[in-house]
Design brief:
This protein is mainly beta and 505 residues long. It has two helices and 36 strands. A six-stranded mixed β-sheet has the order 1-9-8-3-4-5, with no helix packed on it. A hairpin with a 2-residue loop joins strand 31 and strand 32. Bound molecules: 2-acetamido-2-deoxy-beta-D-glucopyranose (NAG) (7 copies). The site of one 2-acetamido-2-deoxy-beta-D-glucopyranose has 3 residues, from loops. It is a single-pass type I membrane protein.
């Protein structure tokens, strides 16, 4: 057999890449990856390279040793043969701690001992970027982590919605301010200016809701002249902690909502109002169509121009019915994206003391939101009996305590402007007590107490010693009434009208 034939034979018959089947490898950032390459022949040298690295290589082993001279720096201390002896023709490469920058087409070239010829296979490695969500409270600082290959010269942080402006650009050892979006001015820096071990994490200071968005960390691959996406971070900014506002009925309240940008639209809503809103301003005007009637003529922007990103809302003459979780959504002009914060408003009921002489008529004041259909007046000590119930335009006598029969009525049965004040005629000593005015909130099917009135009844000029007799009698009568009520309460409990407003909340 001639030498040529022998050589041909070995080439044709004996050179077989065992790992031929697996040529696409996918991995997540941070994984250790094995790039398989195996032959059935004895190997004297192996060279791993990647098309885009030009002259430099990934790993070279020849003449019985690793040859570091032309290794690309990004692979330093990160690659090794699975089997240093390359026993059984195994020249698979271990690549540690991969990033998306390692993606590419790798070539495994081997020198067959027998024929002294080179053979190769290619393997595609695809490393997916890290995608993570980071929550942060507004006002805090946050670190956006990103690890890049070592020795890079250019790092770019951007946010998906900012188009051409960037968040942070670092090049040749310097921060480059040219295309930085103004909202990040003086607020961002690298965690490590040296970018040691490829740490290109970004510190973002004093975050606002406007910083919410999808951040991307890229490094420039010199060899390929392209930017490589390493990390995608979804930054979620929670509204600041101190968003609990308390107020008393009758006050005007400002719900503060501010961003640092120009706003084109603002929508204030409250979770329990369903489709309806509190206030909507867009396309340069107030949009009343879906405003909940209880806010009609009661709300306004603090600044109609929304100058300096101020979308704060003034809510006038609040009642407990206004309590709830408000959401302020603003549309940022530049990015056309919506941002929001929530604010909890808690309005305490009015508590007033009203003195009255017996025999007089008295008005118990109560102002409810507009357009309500159900109003109930109760007195704390009467348990299940009420003072007055008005439902869907009608007085409902069923559960009225007998002592109020024909003595009470709404001041205005139309309840104009939410006036649900009660007139109590010919006051007696027995009427003393704590009266509560409630309305039913249709949307939430919940009952809110609007005002609490302590009625103090002066026995009047007939007083003197008779006064104390009257007081004693009064107390006895009150005791009897209370016992009766307890009795009713216990007996009635099972047959309570389920539509009835409860007398206590
Ligand atoms: C490898 O992935 C590419 C796209 O990433 C695909 O077009 C190709 O068919 C895949 N090859 C194999 C052998 O799976
Ligand atoms: C590897 O990637 C290159 C470039 O994207 C492509 O041309 C080639 O077909 C891929 N090979 C495999 C085996 O998928
Ligand atoms: C954080 O930002 C707010 C306005 O967005 C500003 O009032 C405040 O002074 C800033 N705090 C710090 C520590 O820079
Ligand atoms: C807001 O009020 C709720 C209850 O009303 C309370 O649980 C919460 O801790 C308060 N939050 C702050 C930041 O004060
Ligand atoms: C606001 O109220 C809601 C419901 O009561 C509660 O879940 C939320 O934690 C409150 N927010 C604050 C800032 O207190
Ligand atoms: C109370 O009102 C009734 C009619 O509503 C009236 O007849 C009566 O004079 C009033 N009493 C007093 C003390 O004003
Ligand atoms: C007022 O009530 C007293 C008893 O409480 C009664 O004697 C008197 O007739 C009542 N007056 C009117 C105008 O109803």
């Amino acid at each position: 057999m001639s030498a040529v034939t022998a050589s041909l034979c070995s080439t044709l018959m004996f050179v077989v890449f065992v790992s031929a089947g697996q040529k696409n490898i996918t991995a997540d950032t941070g994984d250790n990856v094995i790039l398989p390459c195996r032959l059935t022949n004895k190997i004297t040298a192996v060279e791993w390279s990647r098309a885009d690295l030009g002259d430099e290589i990934v790993f070279l082993y020849q003449d019985g040793q690793f040859v570091p001279q032309k290794q690309h720096p990004s692979f330093k201390n990160r690659v090794a043969l699975r089997d240093r002896q390359m026993k059984d023709g195994d020249v698979s490469l271990i690549l540690k701690d991969v990033t998306t920058a390692d993606s590419g087409t790798y070539k495994c070239r081997v020198k067959i001992a027998e024929t002294n010829s080179w053979k190769y296979i290619t393997i595609n490695l695809s490393v997916s970027p890290v995608i993570k969500t980071i929550p942060v409270k507004s006002g805090q600082n946050v670190i956006l982590p990103c690890r890049a290959p070592k020795n890079n010269q250019r790092v770019k942080w951007s946010r998906a919605d900012l188009k051409t402006a960037n968040v942070f650009l670092y090049q040749d050892g310097h921060f480059v301010p040219d295309h930085q979006h103004p909202s990040f001015k003086n607020r961002v820096l690298l965690r490590d200016g040296q970018m040691k071990d490829g740490d290109v994490s970004l510190i973002l200071k004093n975050v606002t809701i406007n910083d919410a968005g999808t951040y991307e960390c890229r490094v420039f691959m010199e060899e390929r002249r392209t930017w490589k996406l390493l990390v995608i971070i979804k930054l979620r900014v929670d509204p600041p902690g101190q968003k609990n506002i308390t107020a008393e009925s009758g006050q005007d309240v400002t719900l503060t909502c501010r961003v640092t940008n120009k706003i084109t639209a603002v929508e204030w809503s409250r979770a329990d109002l369903g489709d309806e809103n509190v206030f909507l301003y867009q396309d340069g005007q107030f949009v009343p169509q879906k405003q909940h009637p209880s806010f009609k003529n009661r709300v306004a922007l603090r600044d109609r121009q929304m100058k300096d990103g101020d979308a704060s809302l003034i809510l006038k003459d609040v009642t407990t019915a206004d309590s709830g979780t408000y959401k302020c959504r603003v549309k940022i002009a530049e990015t056309n994206s919506w941002k929001y914060i929530t604010i909890n408003l808690s309005v305490s009921p009015v508590i007033t003391s009203i003195p009255v002489k017996s025999g007089q008529n008295i008005t118990l004041p109560c102002r409810a939101p507009n357009n309500n259909k159900h109003v109930m007046w109760s007195r704390a000590d009467l348990k299940t009996k009420n003072v007055f119930l008005y439902r869907d335009g009608h007085f409902v006598p069923d559960n009225q305590h007998p002592s109020f029969k024909n003595r009470v009525d709404l001041r205005d049965r139309q309840m104009k402007d939410g006036d649900v004040s009660l007139i109590l005629k010919n006051v007696t000593f027995n009427d003393a007590g704590t009266y509560v005015c409630h309305v039913l909130m249709e949307e939430t099917r919940s009952v809110k107490s609007i005002s609490i009135i302590k009625l103090i009844v002066d026995p009047g000029r007939s007083g003197g010693q008779g006064g104390s007799v009257g007081l004693i009698i009064g107390l006895i009568v009150a005791a009897v009434v209370v016992s009766c009520c307890c009795y009713f309460c216990c007996r009635r409990k099972t047959s309570e009208d389920s539509q009835q407003l409860p007398s206590q909340i």
